[in-house]
Amino acid sequence: MKTKAYISTIIFLLFAGIVTAQVTFETKVSKKKLGVNERLRVDFKMDRDGDNFTAPKFTGFRVAGGPIQSMNHVWNNGKRSFSKTYTYFLQPTAEGTFTIKQAKVEIEGQIYKTLPVKVQVTKAVAKPKDGNNADYVVSEGIHLVTEISNGNPYLNEPVTVSYKLYVKPGINVNDYRELGKPTFNNFWSQNLETRLKAQNGTYQGEPYPYVVLKRYVLYPQKTGKQVIEPFSIDVQVSVPTQRRDVFGRRYETVHKTLSSARRTVNVKALPEAGKPADFAGAVGDFDFQVTTSKTSLNASESLQAKIEVSGKGNLKLFQLPKLKLPSSLEVYDPEFTERVTTRITGMQGKISDSYTVVPQYKGKYPIPSVSFSYFDPKAKTYKTLRSDEIVIDVVDGPANTATADNTDNNTTTQKQLITTNGSQFRFLKTDANLMPMVTEDFFKSNLFYALLLCPFIFIPIILIVRRKKRAFDNDIEGSKTRRANRLAKKYLSEAKRKLGDKEAFYEVLERALHNYLRAKLSIETSEFSKEKIHQLLTERSVKPATVEEFISLLESCEFARYTPASDVTINKDYEKSVETISQIDKQIK
């Protein structure tokens, strides 16, 4: 009996140890049923420190915030408990039942997965009209508006579209993120640079400060009703509330998805009445001229003939008229030049075609008048401009005997029949007079001597290359630097691919820095703290300045989750990471 009890005790202790050693990795959601206008918080929580966390694809949702990483250490009666959480904020994109699929993480060399969680998304729910409710305050106090300069333009008449964010006084906008670029079907579009400068305005009769987020100039390319699709952003704002915590704070941070209204523009067709035959689609207010670089020259010299249109209008959207020249002038394909700027009122500037003309014979050659037609939307009429006729005087050169009319002496050159006497082809030889081809022997030929001298030329080159390679290999400091740079690029290769995505870049960068310390210092990421890292790196003879650089990189990764970062900042942090890891690898002992 004692033996059985002893065995039972051992089995119980082993089973308890196995149960205690089990890893918990689970998905927690803030609610399993929500409206399409609400947000869902998803926590992926583990009770052991893990690395290489991979989030699932959130089908039916858009990531509005996150991932936010947090770790918690608790000591209770000498026992330590640990938890690590990755948090996401999701915005539903449609109604229905969706599944939060499995997330993955690596813990102590093993891959663990969460269980799927189903979430039901219903129609938009009514939100309480409570002045202390942050969501309600944001929905009532911040608006994204699409403003258009002309809702009834002609075809190819400019329309300015401005996306303005109106914010009620007292609400602070911390950051915003575009949810895709605006699309303009059946429009030629040009983005205008804007500065996020607050201006005073009114919204529905109330004073509202606003900023212009985006501004475009559009040229409609199709008549009829054309739709300007909504523009959407995710905005992070701080809202004042009546609630106060122990620190006296009274602001609550809220994420909000805003979309502007869909707008319709009715594009009018250009009138058919009075349309010139040479009209090529130009709409605006233009000047037109044809000029030449010279009007008097010798044969075989060149001149430049230029057709130029300047003014305001759709300069990039029509073809210039062609220059018609006499066939006795040699003309090269024109060189197109464009000096056009796009402003809030549309395009303005000049375009031109420059022809290179080379006369071959002496004489006077007229360049006939050229016409250019355009539609003026202000006057609502077509206008035609004509250039003057230009005469090119070729003062010196051979005479053109093929000219039928001689305008100087009013005489006519008659064409004569040509008779042959049978000797016009006498320059052609009828005897081939072929000779046998003599081949040169390889021995004592030029190729023979070249191949003979090759070894004497290449042996010194090989010796020099080997000497340089030996010096390269003996350069210990240089080799150490190159090895350190390769190591840094290895750890940061994934971060480099994420340079265009702020959240993903800093998440991958933080993981790379942690993995590097794990490899170099043989410590778990749960032991990471600024003091611990500083102590370990200092003990391994890393210079204090390099240690501070590494600590500041970790801080940048933490702050980047809550503050905006420009592309310049992201690139600087990447370059700084490469340099810091290289310096640590060279200095560490």
What does this structure look like?
With 589 residues, the chain is α+β, with helices and mostly antiparallel strands. It folds into four domains: 20-122, Immunoglobulin-like (Sandwich), CATH 2.60.40; 134-267; 284-401, Sandwich (Immunoglobulin-like), CATH 2.60.40; 476-587. It contains eight helices and 32 strands. The strands form ten sheets. Strands 11, 12, 14, 15 and 16 form a five-stranded antiparallel β-sheet that branches. Strands 21, 23, 24, 25 and 26 form a five-stranded antiparallel β-sheet that branches. It has a four-stranded antiparallel β-sheet with strand order 1-3-6-5, with no helix packed on it. The two termini are 60 Å apart. Mean pLDDT is 79; it is low at 12-20 and 403-425. Residues 1-21 form the signal peptide. It holds the Pfam family BatD.
Most strands sheet: 5 strands, antiparallel
Radius of gyration: 40 Å
The beta-strand count equals 32
> What is the percent of helical residues?
10-25%
Give the amount of beta strand, in percent.
35-45%
Terminus-to-terminus distance: 60 Å
Inertia-based shape: flat
What is the structural class? Answer: alpha+beta
Which ranges are low-confidence, i.e. pLDDT below 50, for 5 or more consecutive residues? 12-20, 403-425
**DSSP helix count?**
8
How many domain regions? 4
Mean pLDDT: 79
InterPro entries: BatD (IPR025738)
Organism: Kordia algicida OT-1
Protein name: Aerotolerance-related exported protein
Keywords: Membrane, Signal, Transmembrane, Transmembrane helix
